[in-house]
Task: structure prediction
Amino acid sequence: MLTPAIAELWEQDGTGGSVRQRLYRVLRLAIIRMQFAPGQALSEKEISDAFAVSRQPVREAFIRLSEAGLVEVKPQRGTYVVGISQKSVLEARFVREAIEVAVSISAAEQGVSPRVLDELRDLIERQLRCAHGGQYDQFFILDEAFHRVLSLGAGHETAWRVTEEVKAQLDRVRYLSVPDTTPLEKLVQQHADIVDAIERQDVEQARQAMYVHQREILISLPQMVQRFSSIFEDADH
Amino acid sequence: MLTPAIAELWEQDGTGGSVRQRLYRVLRLAIIRMQFAPGQALSEKEISDAFAVSRQPVREAFIRLSEAGLVEVKPQRGTYVVGISQKSVLEARFVREAIEVAVSISAAEQGVSPRVLDELRDLIERQLRCAHGGQYDQFFILDEAFHRVLSLGAGHETAWRVTEEVKAQLDRVRYLSVPDTTPLEKLVQQHADIVDAIERQDVEQARQAMYVHQREILISLPQMVQRFSSIFEDADH
DNA sequence: CTGATATGACTTGTATGGTAGCCATACTAG
DNA sequence: CTAGTATGGCTACCATACAAGTCATATCAG
Result:
């Protein structure tokens, strides 16, 4: 079933790149934003009809989504949106923490250009405005931008690519809880702490600040599992 | 061009899974083992003819390879084996170190089952025999198994999936230098140090041991760049 | 001889037809 | 009524046909 919200994603997505890439972006967003329920069956034909394209690019987008751990392709049976489980969230969080803490350390050790620092400060400022205004969607976008700019600014493009990949699992959970159980102001402050430490090239503080930031979800996760026990696969049995 | 060595890979690869998965495994190995030279042009048609399959699964394997950073697909132009650059190796190494050090710490903190410890010890023993016998190919297989068993044994499946992905870049370099500039015995000893620390649940030692192990390639890389300057993209200009 | 242009042989991207396998349902034998 | 089986509709997978872009080469005008 194609909801209006998904159709809107398809329209809004600039025709950048091939149909396959466009489909991947749209379907990925749709899954993260819970437009497709966990466990829901998709199908090449259904999606291709809905977007008026052929089955082949849909198929390729499905394969890509399955590699990102967002759907599961069962040969000769169907393609299903994977369920959210506490385990999958914890595993993704573990990998993300490992990488981003290392990035933070690296950035503090080697230093980052003033250009990047300015960009980070600017993002933090805009995040603060979103926090005060309660603009959660916009905050998420700025949050992702912050981590991207930090990783790329430290010269770790591959690290960002991997982070982006595992982040999808976490974003899906975060999208469940809007407003988040963690106040946005607290997250913004953590961002500021990270940038401060990096600017001072205080390696230990940079490590610590990112470590604390990455463990924030561990605090809120148990509450979410309880509150959305119907969504989490491994909660109620 | 299809060398006999590649055809052998195709034959040997058990018919596990779909044609696409089989093609991916074979082409991945072929690239890592330098059966396809960096920069070499592949083509969907060429490969599909060589393996007597249609273009479609080849195309899907190409897409997968491009996501692993082993080939680059240029629309309407061609598909090329990506070159080896010092930068790409360093970036992959950075990510791998971050993840595997975190895994080692986690394993020491939480402990691993005796079953896993036995398996690791067994692998180390077999690695030692390979080291003495100079069986480099077999050692590489056992080395990969070691890191896989450790990651999975610590309950970090996603971490291993990511490690496996970035490892391809490093394996390609390592395959250049057989015998490696680092004595195999030294690597085996490092494996033993890691397992010892984990068994004692000595977190700091487990971190340190894995850290040292992961930085080994940093020592040998400069020599390799110099020795194989014609292979490395960013070496001679 | 030089330079612009058409052409043709490539490439990947997309569309569509056909195949094999899974599964629920209906049906049939006991 | 029950257990086994046939069947029809679905799926993803693979093969093939077509479309569209790129680039080297040949051709032709100046």
